[in-house]
């Protein structure tokens, strides 16, 4: 990977889970525990397609897909957060994509745009030791429309004070890549460079 390939952009925006942080195994375990708790089925292929969506919306889609009547999944959201909090105390590993953020630190403004909550994102970035690389963190609670809608990345560009068309986004999920393109930004699919082993819900 040639880091200088991104020098013509004015700002870099990164997804977090699966892009900067190797947290997919952590999230898979938290999801499996949570789906058992709220009595929803584990649908591996569907779970892979929902990467980047907020927790509540993911639960709603699982229920819709499985033909289960809609109900209040709010308790499941809190349960999953508790499981993530407990699991991340065991440590959080970074991915090779973090090297790009290190390379551009002080050269380009950088942000995180994630489907996780903002508070959770700050905690994970701090535990991983990379919080100082990013001046802006946009979590799912900061916007009303989530990936694949462009709002997360548009807000990141706004807070970086950079034209969206001058930003590049690093993503590992189809929804995030679609969101970046909808925002008028170039998107880098990091799965071409790195993927967790074993894969998410495989």
From TrEMBL:
Gene Ontology terms, MF aspect: sugar-phosphatase activity
Classification via SUPFAM superfamilies: HAD-like
Domain of life: Bacteria
The protein's name in its UniProt record: HAD family hydrolase
Record keywords, A-Z: Hydrolase
Organism name: Corallincola holothuriorum
Name of one Pfam family that matches: Hydrolase
Range of residues in the leader sequence: none
